[in-house]
TrEMBL record:
GO terms for biological process: DNA integration. InterPro entries: HTH-like_dom, Integrase_cat-core, RNaseH-like_sf, RNaseH_sf, Transpos_IS3, Transposase_IS3/IS150/IS904. Residues 106-267 form the Integrase catalytic domain. It comes from Planctopirus hydrillae. Gene3D superfamilies: Ribonuclease H-like superfamily/Ribonuclease H. Pfam families: HTH_21, rve, rve_2. PROSITE patterns: INTEGRASE. Coiled coil: none annotated. This is Integrase. One of its GO terms (molecular function) is nucleic acid binding. It comes from the Bacteria.
Length: 267
């Protein structure tokens, strides 16, 4: 073998019998930890998030070193798609609320600003079911969600009710969404009024004003590698598992590589 590879036998045996250095031993141990974290998060973590996870475990390692060891093992994280804006068609006569975000500052604690939106989930028979989400803008925590076969107020009302029941927010929370008719219905607005919320909506044809929710849906669909579901119950089950992961385990770069749960505990 050495003759074919044009290596000296002495060099081969010196390499084979050498004692690994402390650095090599550490790299081997780190590589195993990195691989464990990478697959536990189902390829959703890149070098920076893995480095933050290692720090939580008491192992200080730079993102650059993590990236080197990931490349050596052929580990490549799922790449998020670029944000593509879309505009909701909201041609209804239910009335619109003003955009309160134009004058409101950045939230500095939970339950000051909730943002919400709806997205479609493809089904294997060519139809769709729909996912509604409410997110706390401060910590990025998903406070309410619901999946339904149709995109009516019966999709968004359970989302709001679950969020209020779980969080028990004080009055004057700003509730911001697009101008969709589901959020403008009398039933939905009655719940907001009873809770003392301030309703806010995008201005017409301005999708960037709810970009945080657009980005959230992009992350969710990318990391779930979403294709098609057999039925909406299956979609509901998988979405529920992911949202629990998103709130408790997924580190967010915008939060200093903390999870929403960690970020709220640190404030």
């Amino acid at each position: 073998m050495c003759e074919v590879l044009e290596l000296s036998r002495s060099a081969y045996y010196a390499w084979k019998n050498r004692i690994p250095s402390d650095r090599n031993l550490r790299d081997q141990r780190l590589a195993q930890q990195i691989q464990t974290i990478f697959w536990r998060h189902r390829r959703r973590y890149g070098a920076r998030r893995i480095a933050a996870e290692l720090a939580d475990q008491g192992e200080v390692c730079s993102p650059r070193k993590v990236a080197e060891l990931m490349a050596f093992q052929g580990l490549r994280a799922i790449q998020p798609r670029s944000f593509v804006p879309r505009t909701t068609q909201s041609r209804h006569r239910l009335g619109y609320s003003p955009n309160l975000l134009l004058e409101a500052g950045e939230p500095d604690s939970p339950d000051q600003l909730w943002v919400g939106d709806i997205s479609h989930l493809p089904l294997s028979d060519g139809r769709f079911c729909y996912l509604a989400i409410l997110m706390d803008r401060y910590s990025r925590r998903i406070v309410g969600w619901h999946v339904e076969p149709s995109m009516t107020e019966d999709l968004v009302i359970p989302t709001l009710q679950k969020a209020i029941q779980e969080c028990q927010p004080k009055p004057l929370v700003i509730h911001h969404t697009d101008r969709g008719g589901q959020y403008a219905s009398s039933r939905y607005r009655a719940i907001l009024n009873r809770a003392g919320f301030q309703q806010s909506m995008n201005r017409a044809e301005n999708c960037y004003e709810n970009a945080f929710m657009e980005s959230c849906f992009g992350t969710l669909k990318t990391e779930l590698q979403m294709t098609e579901y057999k039925h909406h119950e299956m979609a509901r089950r998988e979405i529920g598992e992911y949202i629990a992961y998103y709130n408790l385990d997924r580190k967010h770069s915008a939060l200093g590589y903390l999870t929403p749960h960690q970020f709220e505990r640190h404030t």
